[in-house]
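Review this today:
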Amino acid sequence: MSDIFPKWTNKLPGRIIVGGLLVGCALTAGVDYYFTPKYTRVGYQPVQPISFPHSVHADQLGIDCRYCHNGVEKSWYSNVPQAETCMNCHKQVLATDPRLELVRESAASGKPIPWVQIHKLPDYVYFNHSVHVNRGISCFHCHGQINKMDEVRHDKSFSMSFCLECHRDPAAKIRPPEEVFNLNWQPPENFAKDKGVKFVHDWKVNASQNCSACHR
């Protein structure tokens, strides 16, 4: 009596098992890589070469964000300050503290401090800091309560839905120009309806939802 199924089907169970194992390994590797904080960025908090507590500088001392990130109002990126900026204060404050030795070396040699970048968008996404802060969008909305952080961490997802939430309703996020860099500011009740809508209109805020606005 002839076989009901072709001979190659005898190997089918083994192939299914091997294929399932390969797919499982690929999925596990993908999840392990793409779902870690370093990739999704939320919660990413690398060890920096120097401990810089924003909670001390920005919150306790009240130093304006723009003193260190002085390009944020005129450039697409928010610059990390050079060591010379740090030394404007630290020539007198903690001038011999060993924790700041790398800062002193950088200021003397001109060699940049090897900071680890925390906030990073994919290469296919365009974002202009100056456009946002000059139209009432605070650092707080993207970076969180950074003035309360002892060590900076990635606080928001930076996903497309995160950006579109603001672009669809900018009045809910916009604030008075004088409060953009005040990370402790809280909007009064009904601010978005009473003032936010007016700011959007008066400043001609065009929060585009077209793909080309961010993907160039």
In short: Residues 42 and 81 are 24 Å apart (CA to CA). The mean pLDDT is 89. Residues 12-34 form the longest helix (23 residues). DSSP finds ten helices and no strands in the chain.
